Amino acid sequence: MVLQFYKPGDIVIFCDTGREDPDTIRFVNDFERENNIPIVKLGGDWRKDVIKKMQMIPNQFKRQCTIQMKIKRARRYLRSIGWFRYTQYIGFRADEPNRVSEYTNMWQAVDTVFPLDEAGIVSEDVHNFWEPIPYRLKIPKILRNCDLCFLKGEAAMMAIIQDDPSKADKWIEDEENKELNPKGYTYLKGGTIRQLRQLAMMSRKKYNLEDFSPKFNCSCTS
Hints:
The protein is mostly helical. It contains ten helices and four strands, in the order H-E-H-E-H-H-E-H-E-H-H-H-H-H. The strands form two sheets. The protein has a two-stranded parallel ribbon. A two-stranded parallel ribbon has the order 3-4. The model has no long low-confidence stretch (mean pLDDT 92).
């Protein structure tokens, strides 16, 4: 979307949740360098920006991750540099009609457009576009976005944990931090990330990351 629609004077923002795969960070840096397009990189603290504000651990049924760590953070940055009215470009594709139709604009002063949807671009087009580019994002699709996001589904989460058990560490720490999470909320219904990691490591079935896509749609932009 950026490569096709960017114009000088536009601001490109990447919000790092702190739970991204390292290759995602590498890709953002490569993209900026290779295309000479400046990217504003906004970091954050998952525990402070999500859990403390929500007063609970987010889960499939109550989640504010994208709103708190991406949408509102980007909005605060733009306001800090004097941008109060602008058009935001969102990369929902034409094969994601629900994400487009269900999107709710939270600010009257902000217009929203979906250029990939309007151009009829679908997932296959995106794949074909990036295939010949050497610095493309090379990680399996399931590792994109927050590494152990609960919206990926438990089977996919087990596959990710089998591939790299250390990815569960931060999520386990969130759940087990009594000061941060005094009521003992969990990311999963009826279980903890520590229990899921134990199941993944004990399982005789070895999962292939390439076989998975997120189980639930991330509609937290609504």
